[in-house]
Hints:
This protein has 283 residues and is an all-alpha fold. The protein has helices spanning 4-9, 13-21, 34-57, 69-82, 84-115, 117-130, 139-145, 150-174, 178-186, 191-220, 222-225, 234-243, 247-275.
Amino acid sequence: MRDLTSDSKAPPAPLQGVARNRRTAWAVRGELGRPAVLALATLGFLLPFVAWTVASASGWADPVFLPTPLQVLQRARDWFGDDLAADVLVSVMRVFGGFAMSVVLAVPLGVLMGAYAPVRALLEPLTDFSRYLPAVAFIPLILLWVGIEESAKITVIFVGTFFQMVLLIAQDIARVPNAAVEAAKTMGATSEEVVQHVLIPAAKPAMLDTLRSMMGLSWTYLVVAELVAANSGLGFSILKAQRFLQTDKIFTGIFLIGLVGLLTDQAFRWLHRRAFPWFHLRG
């Protein structure tokens, strides 16, 4: 006779699975609902602004060194009525130009490095060395080789992102499991077919994440790029404001760079979800 008492103590198997798979917010790799995520994200943005408002409005800091948020908003409004749109557009074109040059050259080179050992042995040491060279140190050479036109500013951003991108793309390709490669070879695929039909498709989600990170790095080089004989752009405006102690304009320029950078980052995140919806399914 079946023991009904013991059966009543244990929940049904499906319920056990549900209880086991439920993740609390503070568990390792826990999950939060969307309202909680939005609330905490908003709080994360508000807390620094509250601290900034208190510090600037209380008189603890001289407005020359720390303007109030209201002063920054007023400066943004005045700048918008002047030439803000043109400055933003020029900076966006420079960042995207340097980033596009890096993508065109670094992605195929990184794929070759990740797929073929001779290419990796030849280029990885040099690339690994070059990525530690500061882009600002190349400015004198860029001025000599390229000149002072727009191509010089784009080249600075290219130099700052290219070597990092090559190594990261190579790592994305190298992380594809060997089982998929061996299975393709067993089925008679050539080396070129393995790269084209196995390595690149498998690495695409990671490669797009790499490009997203490199776009963020491109924005960090904007001010450095606009050191090169610029007369417009957000970075140039920040440097010009520093000479005249216009701290509110410096804050405005920094926030604008962060805002435009955040928008591009969210565009990459949206593209990743659209291109690889299976990658974002929760287990």
